[in-house]
User: Fold these one by one.
Assistant:
Number 1:
Amino acid sequence: MNKKHRWTSPSNIAIVKYWGKLPGQLPMNPSLSFTLSSCHTETEVEWNSQPPSGDKRFVFYFDGRERPDFTPKLEQFFRFLDGEMPWLQDCFPIIRSSNTFPHSSGIASSASAMSALALCLVSMERDLFPERFPEELLFWRRSSEMARIGSGSACRSVFPLASLWGKTPSVPEGDDRYGIPFAHRLHPLFHGLRDYIFVVNASGKAVSSSAGHTLMAKHPYREARIAQAHHNLDALVSCLACGDWNEFSRISEEEALSLHALMMSSQPWYLLLEAESLNLLQAIKRLRESAGLPVCFTIDAGPNIHLLFPESCENEVENWIASEWKDYLLPGKLIRDCIGKGPIERS
């Protein structure tokens, strides 16, 4: 039996957004995301039979430092896993994790972090009980389901290129309990998708995504949002299959703006976008309309702006940034990412 497991798992960027959850960390609406490449978390779990001291269930290090501020979320995660993975009660995991991008700034760091941790846990489970995984798909499905418990969107990070999470009539195999792979439904246009992330603010968010999801329970537009998400997901499935960039752009931007409109119309309301965020949205729209480039934006739960475009116009986008947004060429201000191949197990 291995004493260590180490996985690198990526973040993902949702086009149709997951916002609002039901009991059991189940989604209020289906969602669909692209798996990223450069934005990822590397996590190693070392297994011991006994804790080194005290009554801790685990030790967690982030970027080489012990981080007790992460303890409450991880404790909640492990308490749930007592029912799913009772063998964990006889192990003492030492968890070491690091990111390639800012934590808690609205670039879905919880998705990469919890998926990497879930992959380590399920790898240990497979070592202990290989008979439970007669097919490789069962390993990925189990990893996705366990990742979902830690962070809903994390269940989509375990698959290459793209993933769908949630029940929807247009994709009968969709499930609320885990994500499913979606790469086989993508037109070649989207295989070279670029995601340039303008880091407007790398600081932690004033309001966490968990708190935002909770506010959806009594949101005045809850039912309308659920209907909108289903409608947009059906349309997105279709345009991803046929390579309709214009329809993809419409859905991507509508979903991004709707997400932040839901935040601003919550009770209490809150705002994560900044003035610079809005300037970038306007500039991307102008670039599309004046230069005719196939560019669009999306936004996660934070102020940072994701510029999406096909690989074919990367040179034009780079020239535009160098001409009009030179400040984002400074270190840490622009993350050049692309659609990715999913998690990697490290030796």
Number 2:
Amino acid sequence: MTILEALANAASLIASRRQAAHLEGREEEENLWLYLRALSNFVHVTGQVYQFEDSLKAAVPSERPHASARLGTYKEMFAQRAVELLLKTLDKTSEPEQKQHVRLLISLLNFIADTGQLDEAGDFFSNQLEYAPVAIAHFTRHEEAEAWMRSAAEPPSPAYILIGDEYHQFWYRREDNTRGMYRDYPIESELEALTARGLPSQMSSFATRAEAEEWLMNYSAKPYAFVSIAGEHYFAVYHRSLKRHSLHHVASALEAWEEHKRAVEREAALEAAQSNGASE
């Protein structure tokens, strides 16, 4: 089983436990499962899946998992309560496979604590709906991104990168050292929703992109804002980890999003037709 599959299984455990806590009105427990889901997402979007796998291999085997000493120093104590919940769940769970998922989540908490990322991960949990999808790197041209992808011994994966103003999903598979990237559209659905009833009647206007970027450095989008540049409407997206904005031409972005959705529909229809043909 790959580390990605193991994390997916742990995510299924989180989902079922969270739903049970919700249905039974255990609000604090539900929030802790949501916290654990956010931490798993944090490791994914920051491209640290294989670093986490390395920490698992380096850990000393023990009959009962330990909790990192750094968990108790976390100022909000949320991580400490989460690991206490996991240890309690471990004791009450008899199924070996479920126990393995719980152990993995304890190791995940320890990894984040031992690498000094508890505050950052906690901020991600508290504010993830207020932040743009995380991009870990920015490249001016596609050739630069390609060179980085080829030269990195073991690049962060999976993760978003920016090429110019466009999101690309980057992936690397340790098992066979394959890697690649493709254009992705993580903000276009948000843009579509925000413009469903038309563009804002008022927005800051600039003659050039450079003027808009200078203004945005002092008045960052949180995480999105509309601006006008030379009479054209743009969607500004603030990337906290990169401390920069990307600017998306509204009309072009929405057109690309519609084309992407049509392409996905065509592919789904083709797969359905092939599946039906094979079954006849």
Number 3:
Amino acid sequence: MKEIALHIMDLVQNSIAAGATRVEVSVTRDSAAGRLTVEVADDGRGMPPHLADRAVDPFVTTRTTRRVGLGLPLLAESARQSGGSLVIDSVEGRGTRVTATFGLTHIDRPPLGDMASTLACLLAANPGLEVEYRHRCDGREFVLTASDVRQALDDMDGGAPGGPLVFRSVHGLVSEGLLAACGEDGSQLS
């Protein structure tokens, strides 16, 4: 995947497939430490220890439609190539937390990418999913929740629970929030 936002999309889709009703996504840029950290945590089924330990192996998957799973292995490789790492913490029956760290200025770190569109797609396509997104930039923070989006739509007088209105609303909220907190508009973040 060419950008980290697409890895985040894949991780959240994995969470949904694992029965998650709540997903927390955080992105933290720490310039002083030279690190970009991405974390996705859910309340899905979780994984047994033997599967969590092998989840970055492309030939280990719980899918029945194909024998390979490339999302986590590709994310792990992207993190390693930039001087970072990937940690999977999963408890069967309670959920999974995936933490990827990247060298912030490393030449091989992929760009963060279009977080505004990523979040807009996720929330528009999954209106019942409780999502909390935190984006920290050197001590400043932007937070958006699915509840914030529902409230904004209610204030706009009755937006539908999914679809184009949600996409436009979320895209605008994320772009404005990231501009205020990080000086970036949410699309094609570096």
Number 4:
Amino acid sequence: MSERDRESQGAGGTVYLVDDEEMVVTSLESYLQLETRHRVRTFVSPERALEAVEEDEPDVMVADFMMPGMDGIELLKAVRGRRPAASRILLTGYADKENAIRAINEADIYQYVEKPWENERLELIIHNAVERARLIRDLDARMEQLEEAHGELADLRRRLVETFL
């Protein structure tokens, strides 16, 4: 990706990469740091990644399906409960229909990506996932503003009615 492409991409997001294989997270981290403006945090432990989610909100969580202790679907489901705006991506070398359906239904994943992946395709998926997370947060903030304004208008209406009736 050229410098101009990176500039047009805007500021990067925060991407968490979780895989019990150090080589996988290291290679993905290196690629994303070279080709994007994303801040990348890597974890070989799903439990540690979940702890980090409490301190720092990711825009995107990319998790491997098969990990000891907690599989990727369980991790992404827990992230959904703690950080619902974060886009969730499941990486798997064991693609099957049952687990894809489970991931969609339980973790509300954004994307299901099979190993081995194409770096450029995964980069695009992550870029779109960051944008999705930002749009969701922006929508939530605007909804809060609207609800606050609605409350203020209702209060003003109540005071006007009390004053003139």
